[in-house]
Amino acid sequence: MAPTNLIGVPFDALKAALAEAGVAERAVGMRARQLWNWAYVHGAQDFASMSNLAKDFRGSMASRFSLARPEIVTEQISSDGTRKWLLRGAGGSEFETVFIPEPGRGTLCVSSQVGCTLNCRFCHTGTQRLVRNLTPQEIVGQVMVARDALNDWPSTGENRRLTNVVMMGMGEPLYNFENVKAALAIVADGDGLALSRRRITLSTAGVVPMIKRAGDEIGSSLAISLHAARDDVRDVIVPLNKKYPIAELLQACRDYPGVSNARRITFEYVMLKNLNDSLADARELVRVIRGIPAKINLIPFNPWPGAPYECSDWAQIEKFADVVNRAGYASPVRTPRGRDIMAACGQLKSESVKQRASERMAELRSQELARMPT
Ligand code: SAH
Fold first, then answer.
1. Is 345 a catalytic site residue?
2. 199 and 183 in one domain?
3. For a Cys-Cys bond, which of 47, 189, 298, 350 suits 94, CB 3.0-4.6 Å?
């Protein structure tokens, strides 16, 4: 039988697994804490390396369990130091993770789904059909792969490179709530991957009914992919808006548990030429968010093959930022990172679906050939 992978398994379930594997009841808690610490603080990849544990215990663990990461299909490194990993999970589904180093910090952009169902018009991932939700194991596994590659263990180290996690990779995290919640509990655990909840940001396109739960049960920082201040524009570029329009979305932001000037909501706003980038749009933006402790992240549109939009001119982005700034909001323009390896915002798209489509084509063609009169 294949060993059970313990990565991503909640602490209580880990204890249960140990009990089932024959660990004496009085030792279960201690053993679970030791394994947890080896796995998430020290990044142990096998049981043999757990030097303070008895040899026969390590042997019995190794015969039943593993600490396997998702398989790394490719690693690409951008000229600006950004790194992107294409990973493969169970069943062959592929997903991407991006590490963005900055002075004094390093942010990992983590995926929550293979593909995405939202079909935002400007996003490359949206052109990929959803294959499935990622499991807690695959979500936690992305952080572990990055720490492995960056040689960034222990998680509690003083000068760790990976300091922040943003759920801004492929997929809509609030459509995979339970798995994202289970995974982030391990990422945020001080005895686990040890990134505090403030250093974790969950980004949503606006799944309104789940936003309060995210605040109560996950407690991370919140980012909203707003991108437009008028429903008629947002309906087109973020079709989810037809279900949850701007007023409802912003009300959920006002009600977000824990929101304050010290814990602001980030509004992401992708700059699309002649679509949402006029100064009237900027004024409307600051009008609709009035009263919400917020910062606004202006994202220059990142192109991808066949994209129906263009990035706003730089001068226009600056004028737009100016209006937002004068209204009292920090409005940093996000420098595009990793564009040369298609790792920038909205450029992620794994090939698994495309490959499947081409296999289907090949199949159809061969069926057609079979039907052709000879
Ligand atoms: N589904 C979630 C998580 C994905 S976050 C959400 O929408 O928030 C990915 C971020 O990149 C979002 O803010 C998205 O709007 C932005 N983005 C998508 N395509 C982009 C592109 N081509 N250029 C710049 N930003 C883009």
1. yes
2. yes
3. 350
Q: Is residue 227 part of a domain?
A: yes
- 66, 97, 113 - which closes a domain: 66
CB 230 within 8 A of CB 284: yes
Please give the pLDDT value at position 373: 44
Best residue among 225, 243, 272, 337 to mutate for probing ligand 1, ranked by most atoms within 8 Å of CB: 225
Query: In the chain, how many domains are there?
Result: 2
Q: Which ligand 1 atom is at minimum distance from the Cα of 302?
A: 23
Q: What is the pLDDT of residues 128-159, one digit of tens each?
A: 876 789 999 999 999 999 999 999 999 999 89
33 & 9 share domain? yes
Ligand 1 residue neighbourhood (C-beta within 6 Å)? 120, 122-123, 168, 172, 203-205, 225, 268, 270, 299, 301-302, 345-346
pLDDT at 130: 65
Structure tokens at 30: 């201690």
Of 66, 101, 116, which marks where a domain is finished?
A: 66
CA dist., res. 152 & res. 52, Å (int)? 21
CATH code where residue 35 lies: 1.10.150.530
pLDDT tens by residue, 54-82: 999 999 999 999 999 999 999 999 999 99
Is residue 349 in a domain? no
Range of the domain at 201: 71-341
Report how far residue 224's alpha carbon sits from residue 26's, in angstroms, rounded to the nearest whole number.
46
CATH number for the domain spanning 162: value is: 3.20.20.70
Instruction: Choose which residue among 122, 130, 272 to substitute to test ligand 1 binding: the one with the highest number of ligand atoms within 8 A of its C-beta.
Output: 122
Residue from 128, 172, 203, 220 to probe ligand 1 pocket by mutation (most atoms less than 8 Å from CB) = 203
The closest-lying atom of ligand 1 relative to the alpha carbon of residue 307 is: 22
Residues 241 and 132 in one domain: yes
pLDDT at 127: 84
Q: Cβ(95)–Cβ(111) under 8 Å?
A: yes
Task: Give the residue among 231, 142, 127, 123 at the shortest CA–CA distance from 180.
Answer: 142
10-residue averages of pLDDT along the chain (374 residues)? 92 97 95 97 97 94 96 95 94 93 96 93 84 94 98 95 97 97 98 96 98 96 98 97 98 94 94 97 97 95 90 96 94 85 84 52 49 44
With tokens 């992919």, the residue in question is 225
Ligand 1: residue whose CA is nearest its atom 1: 172
Please give the pLDDT value at position 118: 92
Protein residue closest via CA to atom 3 of ligand 1:
168
102 shares its domain with 239: yes
Shared-domain flag, residues 256 and 281:
yes
Contact 11, 73 (CB under 8 A): no
Helix or strand or coil: residue 10? Answer: coil
